[in-house]
Amino acid sequence: MCRHVAYLGPSVSLRSVLIDPPHGLYRQAWAPRYQRHGTVNADGFGVGWYAHGDPDPARYRRAVPIWADESFPDLARVTWTGAVLAAVRSATPGTDHGTAAIAPFRCGRWLFSHNGVIDGWPASAARLAAGLPAGALLELEARVDSALLWALVRDRLRRGDTAAAALAGTMAALRAAGVTGRFNALLTDGQVIAATAAGESLWYRSCDATVTVASEPGDDGPGWAEVADGSVVAAAPRQVSIEPLATSDTDGRITVS
Ligand code: GLN
């Protein structure tokens, strides 16, 4: 499965968040330490970040392993930001492989990533798609389970949910529809980070004016805390809250009651 990370805080280089940490996202592409499913994340990578004074994020996505992009370290060294969300991908079988299928997905100021799988996709997802407003399916960026999950979350954001409520509500809707899978989601608007731990590893570090939420710690330094499976996180600098999701079984997989 994929690995993802989001950072909020004082302006830093993309490199210092993604590449420099000894076990950061860059290294997690080939040597993740806490990944429960899959071994490498070589099916592409994506970075979304917010430039000073512009609420809408920029994205850089490539359908190659992050280590194979010779330009990315340079780009990451000179690009500074106070808010970033990035992912390395291990594609679920049967999904698109192009750039459009690679997180982060975007809508307006929102960036979204999914670490996991919708079991039985795409057949199982038909039940979920039926609940979406007409047109939402046409907005899917790619034929991938994560894009459908993003459509469900985005629909709730449009209806006024907070980031954490949109994720928790989507998890409840999946459960109500009898759809199983692993649903670690990561969402930001550059001001707050919301995330779910639902079948895969999730950690956070809140330190002074910075907060990082990641699939796994980027270093062995102090301050990292693991998020219990079946939780939703709402995080901003100096402010992290963790609530239980409605229901998950002992494996953390969202289940049908
Ligand atoms: N299902 C998503 C994809 O195919 C996420 C995969 C993952 O977490 N490895 O991109």
Helix and strand topology:
Blueprint: E1 3-13, H1 14-18, H2 25-28, E2 45-49, E3 58-62, H3 72-78, E4 80-88, E5 105-107, E6 110-118, H4 126-129, H5 145-158, H6 163-176, E7 181-188, E8 193-197, E9 203-207, E10 210-214, E11 224-226, E12 231-236, E13 239-244
Bound molecules: glutamine (GLN).
Count of individual helical segments: 6
Number of strands: 13
CATH architecture label name:
4-Layer Sandwich
Under CATH at level 1, the class stands as Alpha Beta
- CATH superfamily grouping: Aminohydrolase, N-terminal nucleophile (Ntn) domain
Shape: globular
* Radius of gyration, in angstroms, nearest whole number: 17 Å
Weakly predicted, low-confidence segments = 248-257
Please, could you describe this protein's structure?
By secondary structure, the chain is an alpha+beta fold. The chain has a single domain, classed as 4-Layer Sandwich (Glutamine Phosphoribosylpyrophosphate, subunit 1, domain 1), CATH 3.60.20. The chain is built from six helices and 13 strands. A seven-stranded antiparallel β-sheet has the order 3-2-4-1-10-9-11. Strands 5-6-7-8-12-13 form a six-stranded antiparallel β-sheet, with helices on one face. α5 packs across α6 (163-176). The longest helix has 14 residues, at 145-158. The model is unreliable at 248-257 (pLDDT under 50). The site of glutamine (GLN) has 15 residues, from β6 and α5.
